[in-house]
Specification:
heterodimer; A: mainly alpha; MetI-like fold; 2 domains; globular; B: mainly alpha; 0% strand
């Protein structure tokens, strides 16, 4: 007789009634977190999403997005994209040079540790403080401007004070774009093995061949990805620009600010949300591409 | 041939370092110079601007508000995010990806966009509960989520969480004991890093405070620049120096473990 055939055994192993397991209460442990992000992250996102489709009278409309293409808005959109592209590309190239200078040094060296620590600090450094630092440097009362002027060099020939324009903002943005590039690009450079160079040479290749056919193609996806990250970083920046431009909506974030603080904004509540949504979409697309490219790089990094 | 390449590389490296050092250090130096200027041409160096920080009540209020916010945000982050991450890893692994996705979401929602959606909630909070500036901590916790998550995730990934907790549980420890006496002592670096990043981010925050009409440190600095540029630059330098020390501590601690965590991912204050 088997144990399974014996009713006594059967009952002992699995009670016929009342034997269902209690439903697991583990999910209770994550309720506070989900409630919190629900109220302060998901609800705001939903408010933006729904609000961007809402006309002032409460009906559903797409006209808020049409407003973006009116000349005034459109200019700031173009400006935002332009400054993000320029500072991303310049920041990526200059940052990659600096990263290469770091990566070719002693990996345990003091110099590398100092540069990496400083990059960590400067990449986080933005906003009002950064703008003031640059005003103290190259505005017409700034020390570098005065220093150069005393030596007969005028930084602003023809009284064109470019510091207060997009060009000036670009210079300021590079101050956090370059260090960010160093931080995100170094892992790819560290993944390059010296043996690959030796292999190229033993096959008769020179420096050009090495960069063109070995290191270049390996580093390119990561470089492109990091450039995209820099684009998103500059596209979302607000405080630095707000401190430099005291009036006018030169950039998209400043248009959002203007709509949130002015009369026009309260008469068109959907417009700020439509602008916010379009910013989110741009950053979302760019960051997704960045993630894809990083994944491609990490395939050979390890 | 190899030697000449080596020399060229060294020349290239030191040129790059020199140019970078000039670009990054001159604005720092210029800020200090600006904040110690006397009034009038040829006036001697003075610390008047620095002394004004202490004697301007609004500035003082804003500085203490920002420091309080920094502490509250860090504590909330540790109380809400860390236990959830531990719990999900141990009991609800299927939710791991969801929690990760949510925590990294603020990277794709610029602060200037998020503030548009969060403002109605703050209007409601200030009408029904409190109009204290400390309410900003709720929003700040969202802003620090990605950085906190990555740092804590790296820390939790480096220990054998499952074995540790099972051992503690089989010896009769409750979940509170597990968190406080098993998990926390095992990831001190990650906790320190996550807290320092939160503090640095909160001290530099301008977007939320400015657009929701709260006067935190950065907003006060921006106002002060209209009244007395010297003083506003002086506070900037002081705040930056403080954040610099915090982040230096962080990166030195981080370098000891040789894992670059935290900063990667962008997202400016």
């Amino acid at each position: 007789m088997t144990a399974a055939g014996n009713p006594a055994f059967d009952t002992a192993a699995r009670p016929v009634s009342g034997g269902r397991r209690l439903p697991s209460l583990s999910w209770l442990g994550v309720v506070p977190f989900f409630a919190y992000v629900g109220v302060f992250l998901l609800l705001p996102t939903a408010i933006i999403l729904v609000g961007s489709l809402e006309a002032p009278d409460g009906s559903v409309t797409l006209s808020n997005f049409g407003e973006i293409f009116k000349p005034f808005m459109y200019t700031s959109f173009v400006n935002s994209v332009q400054i993000s592209v320029v500072t991303a590309v310049l920041g990526a190239v200059l940052g990659a040079l600096l990263a290469y200078a770091v990566a070719t040094g002693n990996p345990q060296g003091l110099l590398r540790r100092m540069v990496m620590s400083a990059a960590g600090v400067f990449a986080q450094f933005g906003g009002v403080t950064l703008t003031f630092a640059w005003l103290a440097t190259i505005s017409t009362t700034g020390i570098v401007y005065q220093f150069l002027l005393d030596r007969g060099l005028n930084m602003y020939p023809g009284n064109d004070i470019w510091l207060y324009g997009l060009k000036g903002l670009g210079v300021i943005y590079l101050y956090f774009q370059i260090p960010l590039m160093v931080l995100v690009f170094i892992p790819a450079l560290d993944g390059i093995r010296p043996q690959w160079r030796e292999a190229t040479e033993s096959l008769g290749g020179g420096t050009w061949h090495y960069w063109r056919y070995v290191a270049g193609p390996l580093l390119f996806p990561s470089f492109l990805g990091c450039t995209l990250l820099l684009f998103a970083n500059s596209f979302s920046a607000y405080a630095t620009a707000a401190a430099l431009f005291t009036n006018g909506g030169i950039l998209l974030p400043l248009q959002v600010q203007a709509l949130m603080t002015s009369e026009t904004g309260s008469s068109q509540p959907g417009l700020a949300k439509a602008l916010a949504l379009s910013m989110i979409v741009v950053v979302l697309v760019v960051m997704s591409l960045y993630t894809l490219l990083q994944r491609r790089t990490s395939a050979w990094l390890r | 041939m190899i030697r000449s390449r080596r020399r060229k590389l060294q020349i290239f490296r030191y040129t790059v370092f020199l140019v970078a050092a000039l670009f990054f250090l001159i604005p720092m130096f210029a800020s200090v110079e600006f904040s110690t200027r006397g009034t009038g041409i040829g006036a001697p160096r003075t610390l008047d601007s620095w002394k004004l920080i202490g004697s301007t009540p609004e500035l003082f209020a804003a500085i203490s508000a920002s420091l309080e916010l920094a502490v509250i945000t860090s504590v909330m982050m540790l109380v809400l995010v860390l236990p959830t991450m531990v719990w999900v890893r141990l009991r609800l692994p299927t939710l791991n990806r969801v929690v990760e996705f949510i925590c990294l979401m603020p990277l794709t929602v610029p602060a200037i966009a998020l503030v548009v959606g969060i403002k109605p909630i703050y209007v409601w909070i200030s009408l029904n509960f409190t109009d204290s500036i400390l309410a900003l901590a709720f929003g700040y916790l969202i802003l620090v989520l990605p950085y906190a998550y990555r740092t804590l995730d790296a820390g939790l990934g480096a220990i054998d969480l499952k074995t540790l907790t099972e051992a503690a549980r089989s010896l009769g420890a409750g979940w509170g004991t597990v968190m406080l006496r098993v998990v926390v002592p095992n990831i001190p670096t990650a906790i320190l890093n996550a807290s320092l990043l939160s503090v640095a981010l909160v001290l530099g925050e301008y977007t939320f405070a400015n657009l929701m009409n709260y006067e935190n440190l950065q907003v006060a600095v921006a106002y002060e620049s209209l009244v007395d540029p010297g003083t506003s630059v002086a506070i900037s330098v002081a705040a930056l120096g403080f954040a610099f020390v915090l982040l230096m501590v962080l990166s030195v601690v981080g370098n000891l473990r040789a894992t670059p965590v935290g900063n990667i991912g962008g997202g400016m204050p």
